[in-house]
UniProtKB/TrEMBL annotation:
PROSITE patterns: SAM_MT_RSMB_NOP. It comes from the Eukaryota. Residues 453-462, 602-611 have a biased composition (Basic residues). SUPFAM superfamilies: S-adenosyl-L-methionine-dependent methyltransferases. Residues 453-611 are annotated as: Disordered. Keywords: Methyltransferase, RNA-binding, S-adenosyl-L-methionine, Transferase. One of its GO terms (cellular component) is nucleolus. It comes from Exocentrus adspersus. This is SAM-dependent MTase RsmB/NOP-type domain-containing protein. GO terms for biological process: rRNA base methylation.
Length: 611
């Protein structure tokens, strides 16, 4: 019997939370472990559990699949279950508690051990953190709190030695220099002015400057977008996907808190993280907004001159996930790219004062990078793509794919194995000057998209008007459920001529005349429109039959008013006596329905008696 009242040890719960956030791209393992230090102080144990989980991810997934644990135990938390499996098989090799999640995993222990020897070892399972072994520790100086020189002097006072770079255009020599840094040496970056470089795995999470916000632990690649955006002091800047806030605070430092920075984040949890980081950084020029930025425009953020677009992506360039290979999920990539295209188009079309826009991702997949840039450029006649190399002193080695021609040449990539950073992509757009043209603009595609957008807009307007009409005519014989099916006003009108007040229709008094067979005709109604939607037709027929049954069961003295023009909800009783009741005929798809009121039948009988 499981003891439901026994709680899971906090270590495992915090580790599961961190692993889930790492997978979601919220940050690196080290960063999130130290950010959760208050929730559990044993950071070494936390790091070991999460790191091992990602190193053994293929084995863990295979064990879960073979054992069917999550299928048989649907209430189990997947990430907590994975952490417990790691502890059981590669950690302490036991689970000390008596909580239900622990007992559940223990019940499958023999199944795990029976299958683990049959699972082939992949390159991910035993591979060390290669990038982590030689990737330097990058530290951005928060110039809102201290100058670069003050930071350098402070580290020197602590015993560090500055290794100066002599030639800033010798990129290869620079890379060789930082890979050979001694244990107590640090260097200045040749691209990002406020960036310091320390030996790999140097710890700063307990450093006083980190705790008070004077330094920020930020990868060099993540600093590139703001460095390239290069907003001047006094500028108005929009960060469209601001959380967690590293780039936002970098922008605030770049303009020296002189100007305005709008930081927008839709997700509430990430928005809280954004607010916390902005407050810690001393960025007083930043206004944080919890909103969907796609619904925003110039009216919300007036005078925006520089825009940073760093949307959600696959995160395939993040090396702090311990080298776990990022497999391509084409369906997910397609959804991500669709959102990325929307938000980049929004940046280039909704803010007339914007003069430079930087688009970036931490992805290495061209579907999220060059292809997004290509599709946006094909339909934009106001911006051009500019070479990113000019913003890094032409001292760069990795660019976009040659498959995309000049678009590839103009875009920058940061490659983990070559640039010693996380994988990153950056594209720079600038507003066209008078007489300039966007060479990638495609008139045919642009016109086609405009046509599609116009059609969609027209359909939305029709649907809105249709719903308003039905709202105004509630209670006139046809329920609103037809409207909910999204039928057009014309179709419903065509199929509901026999329903009183169910749309705008015209009725004419027919003249008596003989047809080809010599028969005399009576009153008839004019067909309103063409044949309507079949589903609506069936719906109306069912309702008519129901109403007919109700009329037959009701009192013979009950009268049914025929409403003209779909607007009159009734007539004056005296007016009814003066006017002869009509028989309404509706013909749809060669099916003719005759609807006669009880009053009409009574009038016919009286006429026969008089004759």
């Amino acid at each position: 019997m499981f003891k439901h009242s026994v709680k899971v040890p906090r270590l495992y719960k915090v580790a599961a939370k961190i692993a889930k956030e790492v997978e979601g791209g919220a940050g690196s393992i080290k960063q999130l472990v130290y950010e959760n230090q208050k929730k559990h102080p044993n950071i070494k144990a936390l790091y070991a559990l999460v790191a091992t989980l990602f190193q053994r991810s293929d084995v863990v997934e295979n064990l879960l699949k073979r054992s069917q644990l999550l299928v048989k135990e649907p209430r189990s938390d997947p990430w907590l279950t994975k952490i417990l499996i790691v502890e059981l098989l590669w950690g302490k090799k036991c689970l000390p508690g008596s909580s239900k999640p622990e007992q559940t995993v223990l019940a499958y222990e023999q199944i795990f051990k029976a299958h683990i020897s049959d699972i082939p070892i992949t390159s991910n399972d035993e591979r060390p953190d290669k990038q982590g072994d030689f990737k330097p520790r990058y530290v951005r100086v928060n110039t809102l709190y201290m100058t670069l020189n003050e930071a350098v002097d402070g580290f020197r006072d602590e015993g560090w030695t500055l290794n100066k770079v002599t030639d800033k255009k010798d990129y290869k020599g620079f890379l060789d220099g930082i890979t050979s840094l001694g244990d107590e040496e640090f260097s200045l970056d040749i691209h990002i002015p406020s960036l310091l470089i320390f030996p790999p795995k140097t710890q700063f999470y307990n450093h006083a400057a980190y705790k008070n916000g004077s330094i920020v632990l930020q990868d060099k690649a993540s600093c590139l977008p703001v460095h390239i955006l290069n907003p001047a002091p006094g500028s108005v800047v929009l960060d469209m996907c601001a959380a967690p806030g590293m780039k936002t605070t970098h922008v605030a430092a770049a303009i020296n808190n002189e100007g305005k920075v709008y930081a927008v984040e839709q997700d509430l949890k990430r928005f809280e993280t954004l607010k916390r980081i902005v407050e810690k950084s001393g960025a007083t020029c930043v206004t944080t907004i919890n909103k969907d930025v796609l619904t925003c425009s110039e009216q919300d953020f007036p005078g925006v001159q520089y825009i940073l677009v760093d949307p959600s992506c696959s995160g395939s360039g993040i090396t702090d996930r311990l080298g776990v290979e990022q497999s391509k999920d084409n369906q997910r990539l397609q959804k991500l790219a669709g959102f990325q295209i929307k938000i980049l188009r929004s940046a280039l079309t909704k803010y007339p004062d914007a003069k430079r826009v930087v688009y970036s991702t931490c992805s290495l997949f061209p579907e999220e990078n060059e292809d997004v840039v290509r599709q946006v450029l094909e339909t934009n006649s106001s911006f051009k793509l500019v070479p990113g190399a000019k913003f890094v002193n032409d001292a760069w080695k990795n660019f976009g794919s040659a498959e995309y021609g000049d678009i590839g040449k103009y875009c920058l990539y940061a490659k983990p194995d070559e640039d010693l950073t996380n994988g990153f992509f950056v594209a720079v757009f600038e507003r066209l000057e008078e007489g300039e043209e966007n060479p990638f603009f495609n008139t045919k595609i642009y016109n086609f998209k405009k046509h599609v957008q116009s059609q969609e807009h027209r359909k939305r307007k029709q649907q809105q008007q249709f719903e308003e009409d039905y709202k105004n005519l509630r209670g006139d014989g046809i329920d609103n459920d037809i409207a909910k099916k999204g039928e057009t006003r014309e179709n419903v009108g065509n199929n509901s001529c026999n329903e009183s007040g169910a749309g705008v229709r015209k009725k004419k008094r027919s003249k008596e005349k003989k047809d080809h067979s010599g028969k005399e005709g009576g009153s008839s109604c004019v067909e309103v429109g063409n044949t309507g939607n079949e589903s609506v037709k069936e719906e109306v027929a069912k309702k008519k039959k129901k109403q007919k049954r109700e009329l037959e069961d009701s009192s013979s003295e009950k009268k049914v008013d025929i409403i003209e023009e779909g607007t009159n909800l009734g007539r004056d009783p005296q007016d009814k006596k003066r006017k002869k009741k009509k028989t309404l005929h509706v013909e749809n798809h060669n099916e003719t329905t005759s609807c006669e009121t009880n009053a009409g039948i009574k009038n016919k009988k009286e006429k026969k008696k008089r004759d």
